[in-house]
Please model this.
Amino acid sequence: MKKYTDSGKKDTRSGFGAGLTELGKTNENVVALCADLTGSLKMDAFKENHPERFFQVGIAEANMMGMAAGMTIGGKIPFTGTFANFSTGRVYDQIRQSIAYSGKNVKICASHAGVTLGEDGATHQILEDLGLMKMLPGMTVINTCDYNQTKAATLAVAEHQGPVYLRFGRPKVANFTSEDQKFEIGKAVHLQEGTDVTLVATGHLVWEALQAAEKLNEEGISAEVINIHTIKPLDNKAILDSVTKTGCIVTAEEHNYLGGLGESVSRVLAKNAPTPQEFVATQDTFGESGTPEQLMEKYGLNADAIIKAAKKVISRK
Amino acid sequence: MADLQHLEDLVIQVRRDILRQVHAVNSGHPGGSLGCTEFFVALYQEILERKEDFDMDGIGEDLFFLSNGHISPVFYSVLARSGYFPVEELKTFRHIDSRLQGHPTTHEGLPGIRIASGSLGQGISASIGAAETKKLNKDNHLIYTLCGDGELQEGQNWEAIMYAAGNKVDNLIVTIDLNGQQIDGATQNVLPLGNVKEKFEAFGWDVLEIKEGNNLSSVLEGMKKAKEKTGNGKPVCVLLHTVMGNGVDFMMHTHAWHGKAPNDEQLEKALSQNPETLKDY
Model:
């Protein structure tokens, strides 16, 4: 098995901040908009380095999305920053009409996604955003797993022409992907080779999937681990190639099982190679207050939940 | 300036285009379109500094955004008659496979359209964004926007209105079509707007009124004044007093024709009040 080491816990949002800071220096067309959450989104350095390219819009997300759409006219590449909840559900129609249908080159950067936002509770813990965003025609949807990957993704989306939803989170989590990685939109990353079960994970669940694979290996179960950072467009080939080998699959995500990565994978399998699948995801519920670890445990979003699901799906082969 | 008579002729021809477009598909929004005909003709023929060929970025020219996208018939007619696409294409309005969708969109690549609109209240935000980009690009051209008055009931407008004044977006002229009507009736009865002038002023905008929004000379004069007010640290608002359904006697002063097309007989009557001046498509 390949060994992955945590180089020191870091939050994915800081990866976004670092990527944006770098873009500020390398791409003069990049502009940033923020709805009163500059510190939370780690946009301070960009703001300080390029005040003329930083737009504080206040607590007015609808206006922020519309402004971002308008700013593309004349060649700017706007990055909007606020929590995932306020980046999607709150402004869905603005994104749908002014950005997606209008084909605008806006990067919607969303922090504090999922239950790991923690103590603020369900009002802020969106678990429906991947579904909302992947349903919009032309929208690229990305959910990164650690600091390094989030930084790399931030740099990559600036080069991509078209609207992007980039989802990351609040807590400090293992940072295990390589610092100098090249982020390829739409391309899955193989983390472990295996033959008994495929574990496909996105976001914070990727590290959990790696932990699960190690424990499964100790029990003689060989798990293939794939990191799907791009939920749309989905790397169908990576999924199909893997299940051809393993014959069963577990999807893992910090999102409702309705509308998330799991359902996208199901569609690919149903069309091409019907395969037993288990879903590690929230079960059509809202979240609640608690620490990220407590919530991951309670809502079945950790390595233990993935191990259980893997054993179950193997028994269904 | 173009000969005023030519512009008056164009106004009448645009009215005919509006009526014929909506009649042909028995749908669309003639009322607000007719009310804004003089505004669109003035804007595209005299006010906007625009390049001959359309490109999305519009660097080095003034840009126009239509927020109340349902008045697409007047927008399409004036765009076509200003050279953006063939006038013949007006025949395809609201048909399958057309670039002239019910509400304007960039999605089908129609020259002259820079953002989709139809879901109301989004145009000022997009305009502010475009205005900020003009400033970053050191492009001294202006952004023009048209909004309906009923549309001001959408909350997003007030986020945008607050932003534009607070951030001195002074290369922006937002015109409000004050016709006092919306689908369900008079704005006064549906949801009163209060004093729109005082509201914009309270938010920190420079406001001027065009009392006769269906008088071409008044519109031209008013918009030129609005242009003079730009660049002074404040966004500019023009309150354009119009009559919904203007130019067709039985469509005027009522909300009935907001979103309803005339039948054959009504069309004939409406066209007879606006005899062909240029050439029907």
Remarks:
- Chain A has twelve helices and 14 strands.
- The mean pLDDT of chain A is 98.
- The interface with chain B takes residues 31, 52-53, 55, 57-58, 60, 62-76, 78, 93-94, 96-98, 101-104 of chain A (CB under 8 Å).
- The two ends of chain A are 24 Å apart (CA to CA).
